[in-house]
Amino acid sequence: MRLKIILGIGAAFAVLAGGAALAYAWRSEIAPIATPSPASFDPEIVARGKALALIGDCRSCHTAPAGRVFAGGLAMPTPFGIIYSTNITPDRETGIGSWSGEAFARAMREGVDRQGRHLYPAFPYDHFTLTNSEDIKALYAYFMTREPVSAKTPANQLPFPISIRLVLAGWKLLFLDQRQLQPDSAKDERWHRGRYLVEGLGHCGGCHTPRNLMGAEKKAHAFEGGEVEGWRAYALGKTSKAPIPWTADALETYLAEGFHPDHGVARGPMAAVAENLSQVPRQELAAMATYLASLGPAAAASLSEPAAVATPSMPQSGGLQVATPPAQSDSGARLYANACASCHDSGRTLPLGAVPLRVSTVVSGEGPENLVTLILNGVPATNSSTAPVMPGFGAVMTDGQIMSLARYLRRDLAGRSEWPSLEATLRKARAAQAASRLK
């Protein structure tokens, strides 16, 4: 009899707990609206929304390769499975054409779509929640004036129970902080604007902050670096490994042009970010750079003296390269002399030259991901303005040669200890390169 009573109480408690959890997680649908006419939006607000969308990098995530802009369908690999970006054009059936401004704002701030479904945090609403109402209205105006594209978003490939969206309510309970930024009386207007953009719409911490096992940013380690799609998003501020500390001017140039002579070239996901930011009003980039530079002056890492191999002197025709230096005994040094030194030691700065590797974060950074990928794939030419280029060596160098070269760069040019993950990183990058060729 006592056992039945205990079981009964336990069952009742479980039902109550389940009901409470369901009530907490449940979000109601917001009624659909007739798609607003593009002419109903103020062109000035639309233009501001465009700049904000570029800062938010919306185009990069909501556009699939060879797909229509903002039509979604981009496969985003996560540690939990594949999540596909959604269609944010004003198509009524597959996009946001039936969304009201209220529904759009809820998605941005709470991560809940018009139908009441929780959104996966691959959509960085944990940052977008800081966006103010006027900017959300501007973004809404911009997206609702785009050309509607009928494109159904593929089903996410996620295991149970992550595939159940109600579970995300628990994630939000633990990690979604909707408190707004508070003013700092010691800082000026530019710094505040930069913080607002970097911490909010720009969601820089989404890549540059390490994440925990549940995919949330480790706030106690903000901007200490992270990994994104096989690339290393380097630490910013006081934990940066950059041999030459980043200044506000250098950051502004890097964000605007995608490269800086003292720091190198934006590649991987950052290349798309820089491409978008190149179209943003310069004062916005100056504000973001001001805030990022204020995260803490990086301790100026001692620059190692250039290795003996890096002293070529005779310019060749065109003046963009130098003569190949004498052969070295170390295999990595020989590879550097024959494949790299003619550009990287030419004394010519980016974009027509190359960054001296001993001052590049790609050699001194936290992990070898970016260096290995650059050696394999190079930096392809673009169809736009003058930009740095570099040949890829994946087809002509063996794994052993690439490891020798990477170790030489790390040890002799950067003066840093070897990366223990170098070999595993190279295997992974080779596999990614092979997979990309099959697509």
UniProtKB/TrEMBL annotation:
Ranges where the Cytochrome c domain occurs: 44-147, 327-413
Main location: membrane
UniProtKB keywords: Cell membrane, Heme, Iron, Membrane, Metal-binding, Repeat, Signal
Pfam families the record matches: Cytochrome_CBB3 (PF13442)
Subcellular compartments: Cell membrane
Residue ranges of the TM segments: none
Protein name per its UniProtKB record: Cytochrome c
Organism: Mesorhizobium shangrilense
